[in-house]
Amino acid sequence: MKRREFIKKSAVAASVPILFQGIPVMASSEIASETLEKMALSAINCGRILVIIQQNGGNDGLNTVFPLDQWSSLVNARSNILMNNSSVLTLANNNTTGLHPAMPEMKNLYNSGKMMVVQGVSYPNPNYSHFRATDIWFTGSGSTTTLDSGWLGRALDIKYPNFPTAYPSTDMPDPLAIQIGSTLPFSLQGPNLNMGYSAPDPASLLNVINGITDPAPNSDYGNELTFLRLMKDQSNVYRAAIQNAYYVQLNTSVNYPSNNKLADQLKIVAKLINGGLQTPVYIVNHPNSHDTHSSQVDSLDKTQGEQAVNLTLLSQAIGAFQQDLEAMGKDNKVAGMTFSEFGRRIKSNASLGTDHGTGAPVIFFGAVLNTSPTQVSGTAYPVPGMIGSSPILPTNAVSSDQVPMQFDYRQLYTTVMQDWLCMTEAEASQVLGTNYVKLPIFNETLLSSINFDNEQNQSLFLSPNPNTDGRFTIRFPETINTTLHITLMSINGSVIDTRIVNINSQELSVEYSNLTSASTYILVVEWNGNRFYKKVLTK
Questions:
Q1: Does the CA dihedral 55-57-63-67 come out positive or negative?
Q2: What is the distance, to the nearest Å, from the Cα of residue 378 to the centroid of all Cα atoms in its chain?
Q3: CA–CA distance from 373 to each of 92, 95, 369 (Å)?
Q4: Distance CA 58, CA 304 (A)
Q5: Helix (H) or strand (E) holding 525
Q6: Are the CB atoms for 346 and 393 separated by under 8 Å?
Q7: pLDDT by residue for the chain (539 residues), tens digit each?
């Protein structure tokens, strides 16, 4: 059986439906690749959440993030689709770049330091097939390499080699990733099977809640079908956890836009985060295709058209989602990123559209980005909120000219894994097959996002602290007889050391020989589902 056919069949056979307000939700525990597995477990250990928005079809980056300093070249290349530059939304501290006028909410996020643009993201020898290019982004492969597992799924297979035996567990009661949308992405495909489940119709959630099934014929066959449907709905071990989180009271008054299916998906994600679900990775899908070979703009008003519709949905959805996270006080725990399988050509076509291209911007959003003007001043990327520069465009582009690549997309993946999801460099390299240079996407310190002074963290004692030789004694609130997970991290979230220790005592001695003087670290101690954070100082 071919891989694609197997994935399709296994996803159907192993899935049970769950729906929130008509939105299909697929929960994955053995997420589709070793990469996601590592990401998911590491993220659980550091309490962070990644939200990925897929813009299917190949988004036109030059009609999303405008290189204002290349305007004359844009006029020469795409005069039939280019709006007047006075319509472009300008950005604070960035006089070279602007946003499509359909993105006022994202402009506000950028100006407040909660959005970042990474320019010219692609990979060597890019592929222009939707199917193959999406495969490449999903698997973390190169253009000439074919992988049978996704970049978000390989990590779980490494971290949970015996799944699904003994899961869910006390330490990990929730799914490691949730996909919201109509299809399971290949990024969640594991080495052997896809563990996601989907809700194919709007009545599925009510069926599960009320213990009923869709109507079946009043016959022996119908009775058997009803029973099988009910057993299928009740069989998924993560269903209760997802539903319980979803129905936790949300004490915010954020108004999500109506008639916006992307916003509907992100609203569900926000409710699950608010409800305390430990799931570290969410994937949502833009409802529209970005494959704008024609009618990308309106012939009479270049600010309107299919691109404007797509970007309006994106901007409004992200704006409301970020506002919701801030209202619930969890914005420091969540980061989001967008991606599309490729960009579009520099030169437009005669149908008021653009054809398949290469490099395109990737957008990150959240309260944890490295966008402070003082922090980026004097660095390799001194523009707050942007990594890279405006794409250099030819004066008179021809149909074959492409937006040049500035960064390999796997640099973004390794940065996300190491600096946001608390994976080690070795783990990230194992996921991607080699080491890629990180980018300064995230804020350099975690200290502002952890409350070291709360009652739980204060109940754990660490001495001596400050420390001179890397030898510590951890004193617990009481004698414990269990297995401990101890992680030492740098202040930017990179994992320095992780170990598992069996203990039957109130004290434990630990030693780290690789600490540098005059530095700050974060020690994370976990047992029985409890997580304690201690700030470690060296001198």
A1: positive
A2: 29
A3: 10, 14, 12
A4: 18
A5: strand 520-527
A6: yes
A7: 343 443 333 333 334 446 666 666 666 654 555 555 566 666 666 788 999 999 999 999 999 999 999 999 999 999 999 999 999 999 999 999 999 999 999 999 999 999 999 999 999 999 999 999 988 888 889 988 887 776 666 666 655 555 666 667 776 777 777 777 655 444 444 444 343 334 333 234 334 434 455 566 666 666 665 655 554 544 466 777 888 888 898 888 899 999 999 999 899 899 999 999 888 888 888 999 999 999 999 999 999 999 999 999 999 999 999 999 999 999 989 999 999 999 999 999 999 999 999 999 999 999 999 999 988 888 889 999 999 999 999 999 999 999 999 999 999 998 998 888 877 788 888 888 888 888 999 986 556 557 788 888 899 999 999 988 889 999 999 999 988 888 887 765 566 787 889 999 999 999 988 787 778 888 888 888 677 889 898 88
pTM attached to this predicted model: 0.77
Partners of residue 185 on adjacent β-strands: none
Query: Within 13 Å of residue 398, how many CA atoms lie on the same side as its CB?
Result: 1
How is residue 224 written in tokens? 């058997």
Closest CA to 512 of 523, 526, 500: 523
Residue 420 dihedral angles phi and psi, to the nearest 5°: -120, -40
Distances (CA, A) of 205 to 185, 201, 202, 210, 233: 21, 9, 7, 9, 9
Q: 411 with 351: CB under 8 angstroms?
A: no
- The strand ranges marked E within 431-494 are 461-463, 471-490
Query: Is the separation of the CB atoms in 364 and 118 below 8 Å?
Result: yes
The two three-digit tokens of residue 515, written as one number: 């600490």
Let me know: does 17 contact 234? Beta carbons within 8 Å: no
Beta bridge partners of 90: 98
Tokens representing 34 are 């070793």
